[in-house]
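Before the break, one more example. Copy the sequence into your notebook; we will annotate it together after we see the structure.
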Amino acid sequence: AAKYLATREYQKALAKLEGLVVARLFELHKAGLSGTGYKLRMHINKSLKTRCKAIQTALRKYNEAALQLGRPQLEWRDISTYGSLAEFELLQEGREDIRRQPWAESTNRQAALHSLKIERAKEERTRLNVKIARLVDWMAADERAHNDAVSSLRGSNSPLAVEVEESLARRVRQNTIHRARIRRIYQLTHYTG
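Here is what the structure looks like once it is written out:
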């Protein structure tokens, strides 16, 4: 358990140090860009000074954790001379090489992705089966409500009855198209209703 905790502390210190050094490299790159304004350059220089202190603190914590595990320690002069990301290969052996993990292989990732897509498609099929049933029920209820409204308006000799009848006729035509499509869906092998 003690070795696990020491390894965990080492990995956390390594991750922190890597993050700070990479951020510093990006800021150095930004400071060197032509066309960078004076205020931005001054801001970057100020953040670099702050970042240098943070890197030194992270380096100290890293070296303490590395010492407990017998890993090589780093010096400030090594880190402070990094000028590009290409030079930054901080302790490749610091963590397990994930490139050798089964999930890192492209074919395994693609198989997992296809498997997840199939699962989502099954869920979507179930959801659509429910929605189709709800749509059929809604169309029938809507037509009944329109018919009841037309009957009520005709009984009261309202001039609005003609408008509602026309609305009902449009709705029935639309629903007829939907019902034809739904009948084709009913014939699909995976439709369970």
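DSSP finds five helices and no strands in the chain. Helices lie at 2-31, 38-69, 76-80, 106-155, 160-186. Try to locate both features in your own notes.
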